Amino acid sequence: MNRYALLTPVSKKNCGNFLIVLTFLITLLPIFSISIYDQPSADDYVYGLLTRQTWESTGSVFQTLLTAWNQMVHSYMTWDGNFFATFLGALQPSVFGLYHWVPVVMVLSVIFSTFFFLKILLENYLNADRNTTLIIGCTLLVLELQFLPSAVQGLYWFDGAISYTFIYAMSLTFFALLLIYYQKRPVRHKYLSLASACILGFLISGGNFISSLVNLILLAAMSTVLWYRKSTHCFGTVLVLVFSLTGLFVSALAPGNGVRQADTLRTLMSQPSPVSAVLQSFQYAGQYFLQWMSVPVSAGIFLLSVLLVKLAYKSHFSFRYPFVALVLAFCVFAAGFTPPIYALGAGSLIWETRIMNILYFNFLWLWGFMLFYISGWLFHRRPKHQNSQNTMGHNRLKKSMLRPAFYSSAALVLIILTLPLVKTPVTSLSALQSLADGSAAQYALEANERKEIYQNQTINHADVLAYTVKPYVLYYDDIKTDKNDWRNISVARYYNKDSVAIRN
Fold this sequence. Notes:
Blueprint: H1 12-33, H2 43-47, H3 49-58, H4 61-78, H5 83-90, H6 102-125, H7 130-146, H8 151-156, H9 158-163, H10 165-182, H11 187-205, H12 209-228, H13 234-252, H14 255-265, H15 274-291, H16 295-314, H17 322-335, H18 338-344, H19 348-351, H20 353-380, H21 384-389, H22 391-401, H23 404-417, H24 427-436, H25 439-454, E1 461-464, H26 486-494, E2 499-502
Parallel strand pairs: 1-2
């Protein structure tokens, strides 16, 4: 080794990449720091009731898992067919005194799955280098974690986050495994990936209907393309499709869905027909496609475009049908809106923001696909003799595209300068503000004071004070003054009280 190697200046490229990764890691600090003040609420008490009782009485992991299974079966028959989500919901972390780990697990699951999927897709299929994968991954993650419609429902409230954000992360892992199966690898690796994809496909379909429907559409499209090309991987893809469909049927045919739907219809003026739900899905998909294009998000998408143009330029794909590809991609995006609109009405898109989180994630992937396909079509639509005549121009373009650090810095500055224009609070900034003004600590203090009252066995009717602070990333919902409200009943049962209520 050259003894002067340590004195060699770091390249601008590596320095730029280091700054991008460092910036991303810094944005995570407030998200993780405020997690120590995270508190359970609403459905957490519903699904965690039986497992809490089992854990406190036995201390057995196996018995607690068995109780979670029984809770899943009970919910399946009486309320919710999403069997995998209810099983995970029963393992609510406050049962074990670990609720502060909820945002950590959610964020890390999204980070792992995003980089895992991008590594396989970009490096193994699109010949991207590691630096490109790194920048695209960090950019996507900043857009996902900082600008999602509801940080509390997506990262901090366990029942909402596990049912949607975590299932979304599983979906990315699911498609990464399929891409591994399509590669030229040792047979055992291919079929291990295929078997894992089958299991994940079944479980995801039991997680939520949005992820299930979108994944099934993509699987059907992939199966069709592979069948048309007479690929040997068609059978494996169809097998995964069958497992995913089985999970959907098990979830959709649950007796509990009918009970829940009947209860929901009491508050709906009318349930939209399937055709109406589909048409409204396109309407709201277009509406939110424009609404989510804030200036900071647009700056991030601009950075993605620079990197994706570079990949499209090097790609050997033909990009022959841009109009068809873009229309179909938007249809897949719109399909995600159909389940909540059909089941709960269009109003659910406003108050069920945990649903909107994964639709927003899909929006970002839609943009990535659009940018890649359009730029690829623009590059490859020219005849070869024109390409040879314009070699010098292409070389200049290629050279400019190889400097992502410059565009990354420009996009980062633009994002920072335009943060005040964002309507939805930015996750890290909101967390930082709650930490700085003491509202996060005050919220946890008041929650712990309530807990002391709940755990006091001499008190049967617990009247507690309302929260004086409600930090954006921590507060989701609360009990009411009416002791017969379902939230109050859930907390009362969880702590074995006759009633709980907010003190008037």
